Amino acid sequence: MKRVALLLFLAPFAFAQTQVPNVFEDGQPAKAAEVNANFAALLERISALESQLEEQQILSVANKTYRLHFWSTRVERFDANPQNSSTESGFWNVDLENGEYSLTFNNDADRTASLEVIKDTTGDLYADGSLHLNSEVAGEIETLFWTQNADVVSLAETLGGVPIARLSVVEGATVIFSSASDVKSNADTGNDSCGNGSERCYGDSYKNLMYFGLKII
Fold first, then answer.
1. Coil, strand, or helix at residue 172?
2. Are residues 106 and 122 in the same domain?
3. Residues 6 or more apart from 51 whose CB is under 8 A from it?
4. Alpha-carbon distance 196 to 194, whole Å?
5. For labeling, which of 54, 60, 82, 184 is most exposed (least CB within 10 Å)?
6. Is the dihedral of CA 134, 138, 141, 147 positive or negative?
7. Last-in-domain residue among 26, 42, 59
């Protein structure tokens, strides 16, 4: 009886999404098989909606904290020749970054996320072959803003801002991850400091990054 009561309560909403097989008119006898077929159609739709809701609840990252790891590599070379056939050495840049953070998705009104640095090291390889390393201070906390659409969580630096990272949510929200790469050839950088120092710079670049997080709370 509770199930029937739920069906009757949800019927106006279910009809907006589901077409029942039988429609009755005043004075027309209702056959049990036809009535049962209508209820079966509604039950099928309600079960599908319940499954969708349950899946969303399972994948929600709200009030969860993750140990998040980040790796990034960027290699770039620039010169003044857009055909990439220049004999000049040009100049190049290599950036490396490896970080470990604690990321908490707060379930507050603005959906803030607290990103705490555990360790973060960046490396810059200079033209003379020397590698310069810098580390962030552990314990530094940055406030971000998050939204979630099904199994994808987006992080932005401002409320409603452009996402700076999108993370896939899997394994019942116990794992979040993202991986991306970008390759450019002979790209116009918009910078006029190549060649004789006043020519437009063109460059090849390869960038890749990966985030991987495990739920700890």
1. coil
2. yes
3. none
4. 6
5. 54
6. positive
7. 59
Distance from C-alpha of 125 to C-alpha of 75, rounded to nearest angstrom? 10
**How much is the average pLDDT of 180-206?**
89
Q: Domain count of the chain?
A: 2
List beta partners, residue 133. 123
From CA 20, how far away is CA 101, in angstroms rounded?
Answer: 51
Buried b (16+ CB within 10 A) or exposed e, 158-190: eeeeebebebebeeebeebbbeeeeeeeeeeee
- Three-class SS state of 42: helix
Compute the average pLDDT of residues 107-126: 94
Residues 137-152, mean pLDDT to the nearest whole number: 93
Q: Residue 93 in contact with residue 127, Cβ under 8 Å?
A: no
Residues 125 and 161 placed together within one structural domain of the fold: yes
Give the mean pLDDT of 176-205.
Answer: 90
Q: φ and ψ at 56, to 5 degrees?
A: -65, -40
Query: d(Cα 208, Cα 181) in Å, to the nearest integer?
Result: 4
Of the candidates 67, 66, 92, which has an alpha carbon nearest to the alpha carbon of residue 79? 92
Global confidence as pTM: 0.67
Residue in 151, 155, 154 with CA at minimum distance from that of residue 171: 151
Angle (nearest 5°) at CA 40 between 34 and 41: 95
Q: Six-digit token pair at 28?
A: 């027309």
